[in-house]
Design brief:
single chain; 457 residues; alpha/beta; Rossmann fold; UDP-N-acetylmuramoyl-L-alanine:D-glutamate ligase; Protein-Tyrosine Phosphatase, Chain A; 3 domains; 6-stranded mixed beta sheet; 19 helices; 17 strands; 37% helix; globular
Amino acid sequence: MDRMFFQDKRVVIMGLGRFGGGLDSALFAAKAGARVLVTDLAGRNDLEDAICELKDYDIEYRLGEHCEDNFHNADVLIVNPAVPPDNKFVKITRKAGGLVTSQMELFFQMCPARIVGITGANGKSTTTSLTAHLLKSACAQQGIGYKNVWLGGNIGYLPLLDIVDQIRDDDLVVLEISNFQLEQLAQIQAAPDIALITNLTANHLDRHGTFECYCCVKEGIFKYQKTGETAPVISIFNAEDDITRAWYQKYLNDPGRKCLAFSADDVPDEYRQAFRLPGRANLSNLAAALTIVSCFDIESGCIAGAIEAFEGLPHRCQFVAETNGVCWYDDSKATTPVSTMAALNGIDEPKILIAGGYDKQISFAELGVCIAKRAKAVVLIGQTAPKIAEAVKSVGPSDCAVRYADSMEQAVAVSAELAELGDVVLMSPACASYDMFKNYTQRAEAFVDAVKSLPRH
């Protein structure tokens, strides 16, 4: 697969949203000489930024709806990860003989470099960014097996298809890979050369139906690794997770595969002391990144310095402000109960939690216990507010107050009324944002704006 394949082809991009790679796919296809049509259920106003970036290219748009003829006439359909494989429009293209693919599939088919792929229910963004950060710190070192490090995938940062021609075979690519992207890669039985899973907890059951199906998709990152190649593939598992620990045993004796496991307990004291991010969950992320780094001959002094310099990622327990003696933290990227529980357990001060959002049909029972024990109050927003409230109340008598808000601005105002000197207000929703916001970034912006608008006294 190369750019020439797309010349003069009728290429339909299904879903333009930045986070799903639609913009990257459209740019790639247009530059390759394809006749490009973008179709999206969102309207022009919602996609204005992305459309503006494509203004220099001859691209046709169908927005606010999908038209069956567009899919029937497509030579190539590049789908957003949010589009399920059984979508009726995807079936039309397949039935008509068109190629159905995705940004991630195309990148795997064209990338000449070794790929490090990281997936999991929680911690994958931090682990991916930290891994790339540590590997980049050693680029000047001789004999490590790579010259440059590229970071991308579900975490964003780089338009993978647009930069694939810049990647050389002696480079290294570090990717965060979502379960939706793994589902797409399974179509071509592709997986990274070095694969790691951070952990497994119930997530995206609105898409996959059951936890078992969700786990099956995640396992594809190991199942489709090419063990017949010259160098062995490397598979890395969380030793503290029951399911991934069982997978370690399952794959341990595969010819052409090297299996490794990581645990937060294994992080050396030197690295623990240098690491700035709070909580055991982040220590597990560090252990995961260090296990990947151990596959390369990097000097320990270089690693320690890079760990100390790592400041974490936006919207992941990120300090926002201290107002009237209260510290405010943005953890908008926490879209699962486990992520929010990790944040609650990682902060020692009295906490007021802002939580709630889009309903992915997952249980909040464990989160309810954690909130009841670790928070002095919870302010709930979004579709899941009643479910989370019920989970907290079902624990029994608790000192945790439960409040509701209709907007992020109101949630911040209510939290400010509840907060006392020395408290922490943590916006860690435990849910996706789609019921009230375009994405978790917009949710974070609403939170930060509301915090910065609070009166000071």
